[in-house]
Amino acid sequence: MRTPTRHFELSLADLRAAVRGRVIGPDDDGYDAARTVVIGGIDRRPAVIVKVADAADVGRVVRVARDTGLELAVKSGGHSGAGHSTTEGGILLDLSDMKALDVDVDGRTAWAETGLTAGEVTAAVAAHGLVVGFGDTGSVGIGGITLGGGIGYLVRKHGLTIDNLIGAEIVTADGELHRVDADQEPDLFWAVRGGGGNFGVATRFGFRLHELPGFVGGMLVLPATAETVAGFIAAAEAAPEELSTIANIMPAPPMPFLAPEVHGELVILGMLAWAGDPAAGEAAIAPFRALATPYADMVKPSTYPEMFPPDEGEYHPLAVARTLFLDRVDRATATTIVETLRAYDAPMRVAQLRVLGGAMARVPAEATAFAHRASRIMAVAAAFHEGPDDKAAREAWVEAFAAAIRQGDSGAYVNFVNDEGPERVRAAYPGSTWDRLVELKRRYDPTNLFRLNQNVPPTAEAAR
Ligand SMILES: Cc1cc2nc3c(=O)[nH]c(=O)nc-3n(C[C@H](O)[C@H](O)[C@H](O)COP(=O)(O)OP(=O)(O)OC[C@H]3O[C@@H](n4cnc5c(N)ncnc54)[C@H](O)[C@@H]3O)c2cc1C
């Protein structure tokens, strides 16, 4: 790998003079707040944080990173589980001040700057009766989630977030702004749909919006047994694609709507989202309600933005996780899931299962850099830890848990991969997807300026 040559020293004064946005150095007010990321236990001190104001600022900061050779971190919503959106001693390019949003209600499109969060875009387009799907959490930045794919509550009805991407604006390693879509630089448009932050800094995304004829959604809490877990997944697979679900199998948190004797019991904390006619939605949800007497049933006709939990403010969880795709959750797999969770002692431990398919599966695997179109179910095994003392043990447990349920699908979803080494990045980009990404990386970022990410290196070794 070529190491960028260090030509110039970083000058905060020059940077301040060069950009419209805010330049925050280690001695400035707001430095500690600005260097904080969502995941706990990450305490890095950038040499400078630039809260860019526009795409021209982004181009200037990219050039400064290139000219100084300093490590460049790119942050939209700050949710990277791998800690990629901050740097020790480098330049942090923070997009969170870039929040312009243009909605074309008649044309059913929206152009959104990448400092916006999923919740902000969702609420703004919902005001016009329109939707575009992101994930399950409103505070996640549209920058990171979109570049990795985007699997959320509309995945079966409207596909991944990238399946609704009509174009993107991206500043590449030479500092130039490119507008890419199906006609202009289609290779780069292919790469940004799943290839993460490897190709440049995305400044704006264009999304196709959809009308929502009605919505039924919310949380259904059921006792977790092998039978209910397998039954939940079977019901989710059998449901029309208007229904997308997330099953979190975990000890019940002390939620106020759960009876005290349920707290700590193993439950399915199910999130159900029906994007369609409400009466048909009630019928589709009935099989889930019939699995057992629910501990809580808050699934009701509502609005799509209500699916997102309230913003958790200064919440910085310490968690370890492993993600994988499953072909099926039959009784045997469900038994392993329930018994593994029952036998462990971490106060917060979870298996999350998302049935895929529908619109997402109809896109050809080679059409975007997200290739896992045939994968049936996405799983995550996760546990909270308290710090260095118990992190390794918790990590060993999630690793063993994932190994115990792994089946034939060796892929991984890049946005749920943490700091797990190059093999796991390869798992996110199987076969010819990897080869094409490496070729495009060589073309657009030959010195690997954008390397603080789930990295696709532009090297000969990577091409093998
Ligand atoms: C609580 C939580 C819930 C989640 N739920 C879901 C879910 O339901 N579905 C799902 O698909 N994912 C989900 N994720 C994963 C999430 O999509 C990724 O962590 C994503 O990278 C976060 O985006 P961000 O902009 O907030 O993060 P950041 O930390 O700001 O960015 C992550 C990385 O993405 C790249 N990046 C971000 N913005 C840009 C940009 N504008 N240009 C170039 N590169 C950029 C950079 O490499 C950066 O290091 C969840 C994560 C968390 C923590």
Terminal CA distance: 14 Å
Number of helices: 15
Basic shape = globular
Strand content: 15-25%
- Helix/strand/pairing category: alpha+beta
Q: Which kinds of small molecule does this entry bind, naming each only once?
A: flavin-adenine dinucleotide
Largest sheet: 8 strands, antiparallel
Mean pLDDT: 95
| Low-pLDDT residue intervals, each spanning 5 or more residues | none
Q: How many beta-strand segments?
A: 19
- Whole-angstrom Rg: 22 Å
Helical residues, percent: 25-40%
Features:
464 residues, five-stranded antiparallel sheet, 15 helices, 19 strands, globular
Description:
- The protein is α+β, with helices and mostly antiparallel strands and 464 residues long.
- It is built from 15 helices and 19 strands.
- The protein has helices at residues 12-18, 31-35, 55-68, 118-126, 142-148, 155-158, 186-192, 226-238, 278-289, 331-343, 359-362, 388-405, 422-428, 431-444, 460-463, and strands at residues 22-24, 48-51, 72-75, 91-94, 101-104, 109-113, 130-131, 165-171, 177-181, 201-208, 210-211, 215-223, 243-251, 266-275, 296-297, 300-301, 319-326, 349-355, 377-384.
- Strands 12, 13, 14, 15, 16, 17, 18 and 19 form an 8-stranded antiparallel sheet that branches. It has a 5-stranded antiparallel sheet with strand order 5-6-10-8-9.
- A hairpin with a 5-residue loop joins β8 (165-171) and β9.
- α8 (226-238) packs across α10 (331-343).
- The protein is globular, with a radius of gyration of 22 Å.
